[in-house]
Amino acid sequence: MNRNVLNRGIIAVSLLAVGTSGIAYMDKAGWGRADAAALGTAAPPQAVTTTVPGVATATDFSGIVDRYAPAVVNISVVGKAEQQPAANSGAEIDPMDPFSGLAPFLAPRGQRDTPMVRGLGSGFIISADGLILTNAHVVDGASEVTVKLADRREFKAKVLGADRQTDVAVIRINAKNLPVVKIGDPSTAKVGEPVLAIGAPYGFENTATAGIISAKSRALPEGIYVPFIQTDVAVNPGNSGGPLFNVKGDVIGINSQIYSRTGGYQGLSFAIPIDVAFKVQDQLVKHGKVTRGRLGVSIQEVTQALADSFGLQKLQGALVSSVDKGSPADRAGLQPGDVIVRLNGKDIGQSSDLPVQVATMSPGTDAKIDVLRNGTPKTLNVTIGVMKDTAVAQRDTPMEERGRLGLAVRPLDKQEQSAVGAAGGLLVEQVSGPAARSGIQPGDIVLAVNGTRVTSVEQMRALAAKAGRNIALLVQRDDAKIFVPLTLG
Q: Is the dihedral of CA 180, 185, 191, 193 positive or negative?
């Protein structure tokens, strides 16, 4: 029996096989930001709509497509796919793995690292010097990211940071004078308003699809920090990370997920509001991570039955079901059974509004919480705490640190050297380029370069710099050692 799932629309390709994710994760956050600069000085194009009182008519988005489609990019990535261990003890052999020929002689190890796969997504340029927004799941786990512009130029991209909680990522390419989009205000968008998406569904670049806003501030499973914009725009795998435009040509969202029984479009698409994305972008660019406020309560929706039980006149607010001991909420005097109806003067219409508002606040901020306790209004003062960093944001290892080989490595400490039985050696943390193509994986240990034992990153970099187009690394994986040839650019 089919079941409804939320899919994040990146195309994962291995011999052109299309794959989509299951339930999207997202403990999201929401914020605000000023517009990015638009090209030229002329008035931006707007969709043309002929209106007749009481009659809805088609909207012409061609002017917006002509102006802003050049700022939409196609993103291709190389990374590793998740792979479940086989039912029997024999592991599948990856022909690109340099250790595959030794497989019969290695002890069983359960789930192995998986072969490199490729994927496709979308993004859009927000600054003329190469800053691009996309989805975190588009670049998650990628060892190489390539951006293809509408004019067919291609650039290697650097991931400045990716926040899995909001599914927002920021990447940069080394280019100038690029076309950019214009950023709008999603708070002014209305349900029923026409919207346009541009992206690369199934790899078909610069595809435009249109529809309407179906709902706003939509809460999704685990998406507690993002008030999603729901649309009926046709969004499919490959559209992930692409822009959602309003009729003025302003970007108001990032297309992120679909609700589907089949993995393809079925009329339910969800976009991250652009003010959410820009607040995340600011923090990722400046700090490489996202800091969020914390209250320390568990909450639930106020249903009619609960409202009757607590003597509430309105179905509004967030019902506190528990308070973390020692948390900001605990110190402020919040209690289970309180219904939070306002935070710093902003109404909490439904429970999903509270996490979004709290997350936008800087730790240390003093705030007022209006609650109903046993039906009686009460105001409490709280100092917002900081949410623990659970590595929800990641910063890419700069390509210059990976050098010619495409390796991010670090020296083994004494305990690690003793455990693997090697003197010296460099632990592989990330791979890209020549190393990835040769099948080297994170967790491998580089023992020697062209026969010379290596004990430091600087030594390996110097040996690689002196090498020609070909180089051989002595690599240890588990108890096996093998020379792996690399062809360098």
A: negative
